[in-house]
């Protein structure tokens, strides 16, 4: 197990939140697979994706929880907030209602995450300029007032998608560096991981009855 | 199923803990503790000393009152009355602990009660930690990731609970590590069992679980677990290359259509997507009586194993135009008429352990290389000869048939192979030089006989 795709020194937990249909799953898919999923079904409960990125020479694994926007899953969705290092809050620039709901999403995010959680606002579907319903300036002002990072993206063309995920990670990493994020706090959403796995020799599986120190 | 903590929807699991008995020998007493959550029950056994250790840790980590545990007693602690009293004291102790700590059962108490084996939080935490430590190694290994239906069920149910991903507070036990792993793992083996789990009444054959988060699954094996309990097949079917379902199918469509009934329109157009990548299907050891028309949806299958089922014939295999290996051994097949009209390009065919009395139906399987018809009812050399002259045949297995008893069985069969006698191996044995000589003589005799017949019939004209 020398250096390989599985070596990374941090795990960051992300959540993606926002109304149904704003393109959360498409953003995740674009980020992890570099492809647009045109006929994406509504998320039932939760989706999940990972990708390893590099920030300042450090390999970081992002564990990304893509939540369901539908109201009926709200209770479960809320349970994923805790321990998130980054929260991507998404609205659809062609549907004002999704923008109007941001304050309630933000309240949830603020209440359920820790003060250091980096919240990144994404105005998705920027490729649909003709149907725009929310101006860049208006959203930018909302973001500034609430201390959020902000970009308009398109999960379809991939425009700015990479940046939204990476800028969030950079900000989290910066928080670690300047000490404002305590790695040892259980809910920081960041885990430091030793680069070499603990037990490289034994590759057989643990059957259920083996038990563990749970 | 077993879970302590908040209720999901209207699901409210009543939980009880009791000490239902004791086991004594001349040295010590063991208490049998029964934990029930909803209708799931399991038992663990502990001595007083285990309680003592547990208590010390709870006092230390959870600020539990030191006086709650009934005290140690050095002498006279084996008398019946004493044990009865202690049993009820310890029971009260456990009930108190569970009552006060139910919102967040501390790890020591959880492991004392073996939550890691029987309770969904315990089970998923254990999986998470295992995968946090060894997930990347397991991903690199070629072996499948082996899980039980209980583990998958626990994960499925855990994800429905409105609880934080890391309810224990230990980041290694965050269920994110499970998802991280399962979205990437390529080979999964679900090892079911008909036995109850450990000391519990949990019946794994009854547990449903969802595979839709297994996004990269190429190979799925399952044993002792009915496919109707496997949810999310629609998702995994897009990536699956190999599937093996043993002791879990009554009909192939149970898997292929996964409960769908309306899959063809009136004019026969298929309304559902095919299993685009599936090349190997193992449906052995089930109770399949008929190959149903849903195989139309698995058109790329090259290797199909239907051994140990209840087939009496084969149907619908014409849909599998890529099929090269077919295992039909240990079924109830009597005859296969014109098999070549159903399967074109078969190379390996296993029909061992059936009731075949003739191989006539195989006479035009011109691509066949290996044929195994051991343990059938083949009695006549004449009924076997059909496959001897197939142009590609290399391996013929005929043991365990009445025809083996025929005098000079080997040479009689080999004689039928004509020019290919040098390439063929019969019952795993190449013909010996002696056999080849005999065969050559027999063939020569036959030729001259045939010539005579020709000449005779010629003169008659
Ligand atoms: N034109 C355009 N369409 C997009 C974009 N992102 C997503 N869509 C479309 O928007 C629809 C909804 O996208 P999803 O990613 O499923 O939305 P979601 O937020 O995950 O929805 P829920 O899972 O129900 O919460 C899909 O039909 C996508 O094809 C985008 O950037 N541009
Ligand atoms: Mg979605």
From TrEMBL, chain A:
Q: Which InterPro entries match?
A: P-loop_NTPase (IPR027417), Rab14 (IPR030702), Rab_GTPases_membrane_traffic (IPR050209), Small_GTP-bd (IPR005225), Small_GTPase (IPR001806)
Q: Which UniProt keywords apply?
A: Acetylation, Cytoplasmic vesicle, Endosome, Golgi apparatus, GTP-binding, Hydrolase, Lipoprotein, Membrane, Methylation, Nucleotide-binding, Prenylation, Protein transport, Transport
Topology class, membrane: Lipid-anchor
Instruction: Please give the superkingdom of this protein's source.
Output: Eukaryota
For this protein, the record's Pfam families field holds: Ras
Name by which UniProt lists this protein: Ras-related protein Rab-14
GO function terms (MF aspect): G protein activity; GTP binding
Instruction: Identify its protein family.
Output: Belongs to the small GTPase superfamily. Rab family.
Gene3D superfamilies on file: P-loop containing nucleotide triphosphate hydrolases
Coiled-coil regions listed in the entry: none
Kindly list the biological process annotations in GO that this record carries.
defense response to bacterium; endocytic recycling; Golgi to endosome transport; phagosome maturation; protein transport
Which EC class does it fall in? hydrolase
EC number(s) on file: 3.6.5.2
GO cellular component annotations, sorted alphabetically? cytosol; early endosome membrane; phagocytic vesicle; recycling endosome; trans-Golgi network
Where would you find this protein in the cell? Cytoplasmic vesicle; Early endosome membrane; Golgi apparatus, trans-Golgi network membrane; Recycling endosome
Question: Lineage from the top down?
Answer: Eukaryota, Metazoa, Spiralia, Lophotrochozoa, Mollusca
| Known cofactor(s) | Mg(2+)
From TrEMBL, chain B:
UniProt keyword annotation of Repeat present: yes
One Pfam family, short name please? LRR_4
Domain PX residues, every copy: 9-119
Q: Which UniProt keywords apply?
A: Leucine-rich repeat, Repeat
Alphabetized GO MF terms: phosphatidylinositol binding
Q: Which domain of life is it from?
A: Eukaryota
Q: Know the name of this protein?
A: PX domain-containing protein
Q: Entry's PROSITE patterns?
A: LRR (PS51450), PX (PS50195)
One GO cellular component this record assigns the protein to is: cytoplasm
Q: Which organism is it from?
A: Magallana gigas
């Amino acid at each position: 197990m020398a250096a390989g795709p599985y070596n990374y020194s941090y795990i960051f937990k992300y959540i993606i939140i926002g109304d149904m249909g704003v393109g959360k799953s498409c953003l995740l898919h674009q980020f992890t697979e570099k492809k647009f999923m045109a006929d994406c079904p509504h998320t039932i409960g939760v989706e999940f994706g990972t990708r390893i990125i590099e920030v300042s020479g450090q390999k970081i694994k992002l564990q990304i929880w893509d939540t369901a926007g539908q109201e009926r899953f709200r209770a479960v969705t809320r349970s994923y907030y805790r321990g998130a290092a980054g929260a991507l809050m998404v609205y659809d620039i062609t549907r004002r209602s999704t923008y109007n709901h941001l304050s309630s999403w933000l309240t949830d995010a603020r209440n359920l995450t820790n003060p250091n959680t980096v919240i990144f606002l994404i105005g998705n579907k920027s490729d649909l300029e003709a149907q725009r319903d929310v101006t860049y300036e208006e959203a930018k002002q909302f973001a500034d007032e609430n201390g959020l990072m902000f970009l308009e993206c398109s999960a379809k063309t991939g425009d700015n998608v990479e940046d939204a995920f990476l800028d969030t990670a950079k900000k989290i990493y910066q928080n670690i560096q300047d000490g404002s994020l305590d790695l040892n706090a259980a809910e920081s959403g960041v885990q430091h991981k030793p680069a070499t796995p603990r037990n490289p020799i034994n590759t057989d599986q643990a059957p259920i009855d083996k038990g563990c120190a749970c | 199923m077993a879970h302590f903590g908040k209720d999901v929807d209207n699901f409210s699991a009543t939980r009880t803990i009791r000490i239902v008995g004791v086991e004594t020998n001349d040295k010590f007493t063991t208490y049998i503790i029964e934990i029930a959550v909803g209708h799931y029950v399991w038992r663990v056994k502990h001595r007083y000393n285990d309680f003592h250790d547990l208590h010390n840790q709870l006092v230390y980590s959870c600020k539990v009152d030191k006086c709650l545990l009934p005290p140690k007693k050095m002498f006279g602690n084996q008398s019946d009355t004493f044990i009865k009293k202690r049993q009820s004291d310890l029971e009260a102790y456990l009930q108190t602990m569970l009552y006060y700590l139910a919102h967040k059962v501390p790890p020591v108490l959880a492991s004392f009660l073996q939550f890691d084996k029987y309770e969904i939080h315990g089970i998923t935490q254990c999986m998470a930690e295992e995968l946090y430590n060894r997930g990347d190694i397991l991903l690199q290994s070629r072996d499948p990731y082996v899980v039980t239906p209980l583990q998958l069920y626990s994960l499925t149910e855990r994800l429905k609970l409105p609880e934080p991903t890391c309810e224990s507070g230990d980041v290694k036990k965050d269920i994110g590590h499970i998802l991280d792993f399962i979205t990437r793992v390529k080979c999964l083996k679900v090892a079911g069992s008909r036995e109850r789990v450990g000391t519990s009444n949990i019946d794994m054959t009854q547990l449903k679980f969802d595979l839709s988060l297994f996004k990269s699954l190429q190979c799925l094996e399952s044993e002792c677990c009915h496919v109707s309990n496997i949810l999310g097949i629609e998702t995994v079917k897009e990536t699956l290359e190999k599937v093996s379902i043993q002791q879990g199918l009554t009909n192939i469509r149970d898997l292929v259509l996964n409960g769908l009934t309306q899959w063809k329109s009136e004019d026969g157009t298929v309304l559902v997507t095919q299993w685009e990548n599936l090349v190997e299907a193992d449906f052995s050891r089930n109770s399949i009586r008929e190959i149903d028309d849903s195989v139309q949806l698995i058109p790329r299958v090259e290797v199909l194993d239907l051994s140990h089922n209840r087939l009496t014939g084969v149907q619908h295999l014409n849909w599998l135009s890529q099929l090269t290996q077919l295992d039909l051994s240990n079924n109830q097949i009597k005859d296969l008429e014109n098999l070549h009209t159903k399967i074109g390009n078969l190379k390996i065919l296993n029909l061992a352990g059936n009731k075949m009395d003739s191989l006539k139906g195989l006479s035009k399987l011109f691509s066949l290389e290996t044929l195994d018809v051991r343990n059938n009812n083949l009695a006549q050399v004449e009924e076997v000869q059909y496959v001897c002259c197939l142009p590609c045949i290399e391996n013929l297995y005929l043991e365990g048939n009445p025809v083996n008893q025929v005098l000079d069985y080997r040479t009689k069969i080999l004689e039928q192979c004509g020019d290919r006698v040098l390439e063929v191996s019969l019952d795993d044995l190449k013909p010996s030089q002696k056999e080849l000589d005999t065969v050559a003589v027999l063939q020569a005799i036959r030729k001259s006989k045939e010539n005579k017949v020709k000449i005779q019939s010629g003169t008659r004209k």
